[in-house]
Structure formats: structure tokens, C-alpha cells
Design goal:
It is a single chain. The protein is an alpha/beta fold. Helix content is 40%, strand content 16%. The chain contains eleven helices and eleven strands. It has a nine-stranded parallel β-sheet with strand order 3-2-1-11-8-7-6-5-4. The radius of gyration is 18 Å and the shape is globular.
């Protein structure tokens, strides 16, 4: 039932991409060695990873790790399309060389996810009609560019961006061609936003081509909301954690995935301060938690 599902870990638990001071002393080799030791088959790409495919393979292959995917920020609503396309093609070709089949994309025009002076729950951007048109048209083009390499783009709905809520995900899915634009299913971002992960999975099972698992510490999320704090405050204070350590019941979610036609990666991606939450211990805890439902 789970033969086409593989488990990966994101390096953001070792060194944070948005706040490099979190885990700055943790080396790339420590990160990938501990992922492998915790029982994962794959990794996403972090800011300390070599970007030369043969060099990166020389580190990953001895540890039995493959590249699941990597994130690229899109600026389709805020910059000329050509700017995003050039960066996308370079990113696509790198991931293709590494054997990845999906490309994680997220629109960062007007995003507040990296803004220290924006309240996560009150300052979220809302796309206007023009921005929606630019986003949809750009995604269709990028999806076709991915297909040139037999790859797919998976859109990452994300806190603090214009595609976060169920309504926004619905609109994105309705207005894009399923052959060009697929969906990334992220439990943590759905729950923090107040959405229902099971509802989203059931609705878009045929569009979901990549999965991120993170759990949520509800008390931290509520403090970020009531205190008008930013997204990065939430990360630093531990709003996210690994499956089995927070408020989300993953058993029904995992059962749904296992019983579906989903084929691909489940990536544990729980960014928090590694000085507080030892990345290896938490990665191992997540793998052991998920294994009991297989």
C-alpha cells in the first residue's frame, strides 16, 4: 500500500533558510548524515548544500539519500515574468540533474513570511484581479517549462502569502490546468491558517504531487496571533514541530494518503530553533511516529 511513497527530511531543521543564524554552526555533512541515520531516503535542498550536481551527489549517494525537490521563490505578481523564468530554468535544470521529479514553487510577491514588522495573521497579502491573472499565466508557462524535462511544478500554499487559505487554494486549482500546475500538500501551513487538511486532500487528491509534514504547537500559534507577531517569530518560538509532537492527529491523514493513489515523497519539514529542538532527535522521532501507521 505504501510502496510508491518515500520519506525525506528537510534541512531547515538543521539550518534555517530564512534565519541562517538558527543552526549556523550545523554543517551540511552533519545534516545529511543525521537524516540518513534517522532513517530517511531523501532530502530537500538547504542553503549549505553544494549546487554542483556531481559534488552534491558525491555526498548524498554514500548516505543513501536522493533529492526530493527544492523550493524556488516566484515573483510573477511583482516583477517581469522573464526575471522569474530565468531563475526557474536554472533551478529546474539543477533539480533535473539531481533526479528530482517535482519543483516546489511559491509566489512571493507581497509576501510577509520574511517580514519582521508584519503581523502574520493580520497583514496577509490579498491578490487583486491583475495579480491573479499574472500568477495564473506565469504558472501555466512554468508548468510547461517543467514538462520539457519530464517534471512538474507543485504549488506550495504558504502562511503570509497570497495563496494560503482554502478559498485561495480553490481559486488557484480552478483557474490552472491540472496538466501544468500541481499542488503541494503541507499539513502545518493548513492547520496554522485554520484550514482542514483532510478536506483539502480529499478535494485535490489527483492534483497533489508532493507532501510536507509538520505538526503545530497550538499554544505558540495562538500567542503569535494574539501578540500580532510575524511568521519568523512563530518559527523561532516553535510554532512548528515534527509529526507526533504537536496538535495534529496524523493517523487519519496518513491513512488517507496510504489508501489513495499518491505516489511520491512525504517530507518532514519542521523548522524550529535547532538549539532548542535537536534536529536529529526530532527527525528520528517523526520517522518512528510515522512508521507505526504503515
Amino acid at each position: 500500500m505504501t510502496r510508491n511513497i518515500r520519506y525525506a527530511c528537510a534541512p531547515i531543521a538543521w539550518t534555517n533558510d530564512d534565519m541562517p543564524e538558527l543552526g549556523s554552526s550545523n554543517s551540511f555533512e552533519q545534516c545529511i548524515s543525521e537524516m540518513a541515520l534517522a532513517g530517511y531516503e531523501g532530502t530537500e535542498i538547504g542553503n549549505k548544500y553544494p549546487r554542483e550536481p556531481e559534488v552534491l551527489k558525491s555526498y548524498l549517494e554514500p548516505r543513501g539519500l536522493s533529492v526530493a525537490s527544492a523550493w524556488i521563490s516566484l515573483y510573477l505578481t511583482s516583477k517581469p515574468y522573464e526575471v522569474t523564468e530565468a531563475a526557474f530554468i536554472k533551478h529546474r535544470d539543477f533539480l533535473c540533474e539531481m533526479g528530482a521529479k517535482v519543483i516546489v514553487v511559491s509566489e512571493q510577491g507581497n509576501s510577509i513570511q520574511g517580514s519582521l514588522d508584519k503581523a502574520l495573521f493580520k497583514d496577509k497579502p490579498i491578490f487583486n484581479d491583475k495579480e491573479w491573472r499574472l500568477l495564473i499565466a506565469g504558472l501555466e508557462k512554468l508548468g510547461k517549462l517543467a514538462q520539457e524535462k519530464d517534471m512538474e511544478i507543485v504549488y506550495h500554499h504558504h502562511m503570509g502569502t497570497g495563496i494560503q487559505t482554502t478559498e485561495e487554494i480553490d481559486k488557484l486549482m480552478e483557474q490552472t490546468n491540472k496538466d501544468n500546475v500541481s499542488l503541494l500538500f503541507d499539513t502545518g501551513h493548513l492547520v496554522v491558517s485554520g484550514e482542514n487538511p483532510i478536506e483539502i486532500f480529499n478535494k485535490y487528491e489527483d492534483r497533489i504531487k508532493h507532501i510536507h509534514f509538520k505538526d503545530v504547537r497550538q499554544e505558540v500559534k495562538e500567542a503569535v496571533d494574539t501578540g500580532n507577531q510575524c511568521f519568523l517569530d512563530g518559527v523561532r518560538k516553535g510554532m512548528f514541530t515534527v509529526p507526533g509532537d504537536g496538535a495534529i492527529d496524523f493517523e487519519p491523514i496518513l491513512n488517507l494518503i496510504y489508501q489513495s493513489s499518491y505516489s511520491g515523497w512525504i517530507v518532514v519539514e519542521a523548522e524550529q530553533d535547532p538549539a532548542i529542538a535537536n534536529p536529529f532527535i526530532y527527525a528520528k522521532k517523526a520517522k518512528e511516529y510515522m512508521s507505526q501507521f504503515q
